[in-house]
Amino acid sequence: MLKQSIVMLDFETTGLSPANGDRITEVAALRLRDGQVVERFVSLINCGVRIPAFITGLTGISQAMVDSAPPVAQVLPRLLEFIGSDPLAAHNASFDDKFLQAEAASLGLTPGYPSLLCSLKLARRVYPSFGSYRLGDLSSKLGIRFASAAHRAEADAEVAAAVLLEIGRQLGRDYAWQEVTPALLLAINKLAAAKVPAFLEKQRGQILR
After folding, report:
1. Number of domains present in the structure of the chain
2. Residue 33: is it exposed, middle or buried by C-beta count within 10 angstroms (0-12/13-18/19+)?
3. Which end of the chain is more exposed for a tag (fewer CB within 10 A), N or C?
4. What is the pTM assigned to this prediction?
5. Is the residue at 1 inside a domain?
6. 110-148 residue pLDDT tens
7. Domain residues for 26?
8. Distance from first CA to last CA of the chain, Å, rounded?
9. Residue 164 lies in a domain
10. Which range, of 10-19, 90-99, 142-151, 191-200, averages the lowest pLDDT?
11. Phi, psi at residue 115, to the nearest 5°?
């Protein structure tokens, strides 16, 4: 599954919206190829703002940790270089993307990834009977465990990557595909949920001919 490269991204942040002044505190980016993680980029980030107490309680990321971390002006260019021109994926991707776009714009940088894939949307389409698609609930349903504490960027990215790969394997099992590509997942991602079964059957028919 997923022989072509795709980068799974996860941010920890000070809040929900960069428009409200919230900033990134930690990043993890994992490059997936041939169904496994082949490269990773992980860093705390000195975002230049105070860390709310409830964020420290949720993530374990303290003010002292970010104060001693490299500044965003150093981390973001390295992150964008790491991502390069590979497709980007995240769980609830619009959240991570808006922070990435905001931080890049503040530095006068332009991300180069060609497409954005959301594993949460994919899960809704591939597992329509699941009651919850939050990362913790979804991973539990799929038998995927966190290697370390949730709400840290690397742990969340690892689980999101495992979820994405399992979605690929599920599609392979259901539709007899030898390979699931980022382009195929992106096409599914863009469809309304009701149109997905017919689309997948059509794709299977084209492959089997």
Report:
1. 1
2. middle
3. C
4. 0.93
5. no
6. 999 999 999 999 999 999 999 899 999 999 999 998 876
7. 6-208
8. 21
9. yes
10. 142-151
11. -155, 160
